[in-house]
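QA checklist item 7 of 12: single-chain prediction sanity check.
[x] sequence parsed
[x] length recorded as 414
[x] structure emitted
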Amino acid sequence: MRFHDAFKSAIKSVQHSKMRSFLTILGIVIGVASVIILMSVGQSAQDYILNQVKGVGSNLVFVIPGGTSGSKFAAPASSRGVIIKTLTSLDVDALKREPTIAAVSPLVNGQATIAYGNNNNSIPYQGVAADFFPMRGFGVSSGRIFTSSDVGSSNRIVLIGQTVAKTLFGDVTPLGKFVRLGNIPFQVVGVLENKGVGPGGIDQNNMAIVPITVAQNQLLGITYYNYLLVEANDAYNIDFVTSRVKTVLRQNHHITDPAKDDFTVETQADILSILGNITSVMTIFLTAIASISLLVGGIGIMNIMLVSVIERTREIGLRKAVGATTADILKQFLTEATLLTLMGGVIGIGLGALVTFGAYLIIAKGLAVDWTFVLPLDAVLLGAGVSILTGIVFGFYPARQAAKKSPIEALHYE
């Protein structure tokens, strides 16, 4: 039997039992669509997260208190809530004297309730130096950023994100108004530009920024920093600057063994590498879970094909009686199973692409998030390839059972 004849026979069989064919491929449709959706959304999420980190700036070095025990992927203890007081003003002064460094901005973090009148909201806040704004590319949609003079004078002024402004003031301008942050009055001098989610997963629209001197002395009561932001001098390679930052801090902390560092230095490349690995593993894990439905669909194909073999026993006997070989029968039923799964794969790819595009419209247009529509070619090829492979693997046993039937016994089957 030629492949053309086997294919025509498979099409007729599918058309003859439309409902059964639909139910047969339904599991494949759901499985392939799930794989397409998870791979596409996973890739979009990865692009979104990495773009947020790239927006921070490629010439920045982050210094975090606490070591990582020599492991690149281990998180410093400070990121797990452990209080580490190793970064101080002495470190900032030492780093500012380093010629490979253009600027240094210490930061502290906190969480407090911000209130205006009867409106209030619990938000994260940052205490920063004036250099922070040009280093991070932070601007204001209205008002002004604060200056070195504001920091030095410990002026109680605050910049608020757009979500905070909307929650507390509605459509009224917040500029010049006084809010209470941690029961301390602050005057609103600016509203931050729309920034979205930043490093660490912080919603930068739902936060406040105050002078670091006020945050340390009046809000937190500390003398150390939560981390340092270092801007590399453009004349030097970022890797060289990173090594100089480590050298300066080791000298300042009297550390001779790098394995005993009480700080962690990271660049944008380090963060991108770690995030890329995490998101890739998560995408693979979720895709593997979705692939289980393909296995279920394949078993469904095998069961339906076995039933089809029993129903068409007399047909098999008749074909063999007029000269069809065992290979012809095997080819016929294997082609039919592969056709069914291929149809399911094509429909599943289309359904997956449609759902993914719908998710893009909701997230990007409805929620105003900088989300991109991604339909990876490897997801499409995987969906088509797996559907064909499923038809061959799960269709082989029923096809073999049909091919093994004796023509005499088949013709006498009731």
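[x] summary fact logged: The longest strand covers residues 101-116.
[ ] second reviewer sign-off
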